[in-house]
Batch of 2 targets.
Target 1
Amino acid sequence: MTEQPKIYVAGHRGMVGSSIVRQLLAQGHPAESIVTRTHAELDLTNQAAVNAFFADEKLDQVYLAAAKVGGIIANSIYPAEFIYQNLMMQTNVIDAAFRHGVQKLMFLGSSCIYPKLAPQPMREDALLTGMLEPTNEPYAIAKIAGIKLCESYNRQYGNSHGVDFRSVMPTNLYGPGDNYHPENSHVIPALIRRFHEAKAGNASSVTIWGTGTPKREFLFVDDMAAASVHVMNLSQAAYDQHTKPMLSHINVGSGEDLTIRELAEAIAKTVGYTGQVTFDSSKPDGAPRKLMDSGRLKALGWQAKIGLVQGLELAYNDFLKTKAGHI
Ligand SMILES: NC(=O)c1ccc[n+]([C@@H]2O[C@H](COP(=O)([O-])OP(=O)(O)OC[C@H]3O[C@@H](n4cnc5c(N)ncnc54)[C@H](OP(=O)(O)O)[C@@H]3O)[C@@H](O)[C@H]2O)c1
């Protein structure tokens, strides 16, 4: 039997980290070779603690899915925490990985790294071509620094130490483990909750902010996890063929976008809400369209598998379970 790599999944209790653990187990990776630590057990902003952990564990691979994540409101109120904690976590983990002989690391970023006015669909080479969206600029700057950390370690230590650190940038994600907080959640979990509550309360209508016309892209989280494992396991030759040393990150999207109105109608259907869906056009809309170009990933042999209807059903089932537990 070939020896299995020892893999650390940072952020294993988060939506994406937990899905990466499920994905590794589903692909036959033995549970005893997957290393995890809760935030309470290991604060990744603590450099000494992170170095001690890496020294003890002798890891082969790292998925960096721990981050301080939040919506527009949290990003506006706590910009210092968003930039500081994300810079610290990723810098500590990436540097400790290098110092302790980890050759393969996957850094998870986000589509907010791209300029506010990037041409649609957004290609990887739109990075650093314009101003960022101001509300989450500190978070986006940290994510861009994460990509550049990976690239710089590859460039300096790739040949001498076999360092091979990669980055994936997912579009909007949803699915099991999502945050259903009434004020501080992303659009899909927020609408699942609102339609569920409207159905339970026999509300005749649900009003959604904006005109309903902006288009957005969504990816089921298990697809994101599968894509991360796929990119991690690509041969160096295949990866090098489709990336550049200073333009190495890879977009991960479904390749399809839909209007907020279409999304709302799909969620209402999934939840079984039969009342009216109306739009308050006095409220702001945001960018008219945000879609990733995932051609690079497609060329590397991966495509999303879970469509929106199936994904929403799985997400709603998770909401019902979570609600029964602790919402
Ligand atoms: N959700 C999305 O739509 C989306 C879209 C694009 C990209 N992403 C990216 O995917 C990654 C994971 O996101 P997610 O949605 O899975 O976030 P999440 O559910 O909030 O999970 C983040 C995880 O990081 C852990 N963490 C935070 N601070 C930590 C610290 N100082 N030390 C140790 N652990 C810490 C959290 O633990 P505690 O909860 O215990 O603090 C949590 O388990 C992020 O890099 C994010 O940028 C997410």
Note: Residues 137-161 form the longest helix (25 residues).
Target 2
Amino acid sequence: MGSPFSQVDLGLLKKYDRPGPRYTSYPTAPLFHGAFTAEEYHKEILATNTAGSASDISLYFHFPFCDTLCYFCGCTMLVTRDRHRIEEYLGYLKREIGFIAPHIAKGRKVVQLHWGGGTPTHLLPDQIRDIATFIGSSFAMDPDAEVSVEIDPRELRREHLEALRESGFNRMSMGVQDLDPKVQEAVNRLQPEAMTTEVYTWARDLGFTGINIDLIYGLPFQTLRGFEQTIRKVIEYGPDRIAVFNYAHVPWLKPH
Ligand SMILES: C[S@@+](CC[C@H](N)C(=O)[O-])C[C@H]1O[C@@H](n2cnc3c(N)ncnc32)[C@H](O)[C@@H]1O
Ligand code: SF4
């Protein structure tokens, strides 16, 4: 096999070789600000009901909890094992769904739904089923919707993936970052390769049709050679997409 990099269009790479926000939320994080009021939000939602071509909707749900802290993490998350706190959050999430859903015109279908984090699979399998059922009864899901979730292989049991499949999830995004144990140790994210392989195999067995793997470059102890090995191995899994993030170093936001 030739170098995976030989297939990259260098012109395209140069064109987009500039810092930009990660696309994991839309609008992207720097566009959020406190001056956008609840009234404006409400008005915007109502406006989309009459926008003609915008009849389909995409929904994003944030689950900000994690089991341990990865030192590079720039996400909006909180490390907790306090199950009461998580339950409390799920209660608030249901309330918010209850505020929003009645304003969406009947007949509008959800064609994309995504659970991000944090780590949505830090929920227990029954919590996954419960909140997914609540969402499904609050909005009209298109039977062909893309329903996706971010998972962290380190704290995942097969039951989590079963609960997700039963709840209609068909796509997933797996955090890997780098397969080199030295890099993993430096960023406090020990994730043996065998674990990543096992979770990937479960996901395919259970019928997830779209699997993404996240990598990050710019982490401590990474070298071109080592990272190339990670990329080669990840390509061998055969994921449908690989997201390669430039490490965002934002100590003023994330002191860790
Ligand atoms: C919300 S997190 C991931 C899901 C899950 N909690 C996990 O870690 O496997 C989504 C992705 O954002 C990326 N990410 C997190 N912090 C980052 C940073 N500071 N710079 C670049 N990418 C980052 C990682 O690749 C991570 O997998
Ligand atoms: S990278 Fe994922 S698991 Fe690690 S702290 Fe961030 S959200 Fe949590």
Note: The mean pLDDT is 93.
